[in-house]
Structures are given as C-alpha cells and as structure tokens.
User: Fold Sugar ABC transporter substrate-binding protein from Mesorhizobium temperatum.
Amino acid sequence: MKSTASLFRALLTVSLLAGCSSYRPAPAAFHKMLDQPYRLGAGDRVRVTVFEQEGLTNVYSVDQSGYLSIPLVGAVPARGHTAQQLEGEIADKLRQGYLRDPDVSVEIDRYRPIFIMGEVGAAGQYSYVPGLTVQKAIAIAGGFSPRANQESVDITRDINGKVMTGRVATSDPLLPGDTVYVRERLF
Assistant:
C-alpha cells in the first residue's frame, strides 16, 4: 500500500512536470510565411543594378536599422520590403533630381544567416540557402549529438515583427534568420 502511494505520487509529479514543459506547436503563421514573397531584413545583402549607371550598380547590405545606403540618394528603407518593392523605392529616389527614367533591378545576393543551437555537433551561425530544411541544416551543423531528440525541433522566427517560437518536424523548411534549437531527449 505504501509503495503504491509513493508510485502514484511519483507518477503525478512526472505528469505535472510534463504539463509544465514548454511545448509550443508551430503557429499557423509559421507555414503561411513560406508562401509569401521574401521580405528583406538586417543582414541581407542585395545586388542593385541601375542600368547605364555603373557608379550606382553595386552590392549593398541591409544595416541593423533596416536601411540601404546608396550613393546620391542616401538611406533607403529596406526592412520588410520585397526585392520588387525596393526596386520601386530606389527608382523613386533617383527620379528626384538625379535620373529621368531610372531602370532599377534588385536581386538578393546573400540571405541573412540561420543559427543552430542545442544537441548538434557544432552549434553556430550558418549561411542560408534557398530550399534549406531543418534536417539539412542539422547536417551542416555536424548532425545530431547522441542525446538529441531527433523527432522535432524548436524554431524561433520573426513573423511580421513578432518573434515566435514553435515546434516543427525535421522535414520543415527554414527561412533566413531562423534560430533552430535541438532539444535533448528524455530517455
């Protein structure tokens, strides 16, 4: 009887602790972001081509405050803009006394990095490439450690200015700027 009561208390304690875990399924916005056009952020690098204006054609980085610094026009807001929107912004600024009809093209030269933490071979910052999944990113980081939970991981993602964390399968795609956390398994 005494051992049954202590077993019951132990099971109750374990179930209460499991209920207090930080399990957060991925919000619906995680997957909606995959179908939307890519929006620039700090750490992205873009190639701006202004046709017949070699002095303006160059590679520019989005700074921490979300701006590109372009000769003649100065700071151009880039954070939250698509490449096509940025083309329009730059062309509008160039029309204001510099060029009559500027033809501007913007393409992404380098995406902002992803970060991998937790139970992997080599945690750290890694370059993002289009088509990267959680599983591929973990392989780049040296694979799972022997203690890793290999079923799902936690991803922290900036969604429309809000930082959200959710649990996803290892087959899910990543976006630039994501932070992947591989948890330790219980047994």
In short: The chain is about 25% helix and 30% strand. The CA atoms of residues 38 and 82 lie 6 Å apart. Residues 2-19 form the longest helix (18 residues).
